[in-house]
Amino acid sequence: MTVNQTLTVTSGGAGGYQIKASEDHPLKVSSSGKTIPDTNCDTSCSETAAGIWSSNSKYGFGFNMSGNDIPGDFTDLTYFRQFADRSSVESPQIVMSSTGVGSGRQATVKYKVNISGTQAAGVYSNTIMYTAIPAY
Asked: What is the pTM of this model?
């Protein structure tokens, strides 16, 4: 299952901007603590490096980006990363950045969750935080 979200940035700072992203914890059911882990992609990926995730038998939660000012490791729509996990003391990671003034810069975040047929039923959730940081 995938869902898209568009991020739009207008930056007037002469030094540009950065957008950093993180999650409060992996997807989980608050009442039971059951989780859907962050993806490891087909072979490997992390919060800092995207990897190919096209196999239906590789389970987890992750994201892909396309559009303006995104990190270069999102080579195409098959490359995904994990979100930095604040509950594991991982630092938020840059998902958009530019060193110049920009107006209406847009990137699409594709959230992907792939679960096995044996995943415990429940309402899984987490909070994704995006932080905009201007540079002058």
From this structure: 0.94
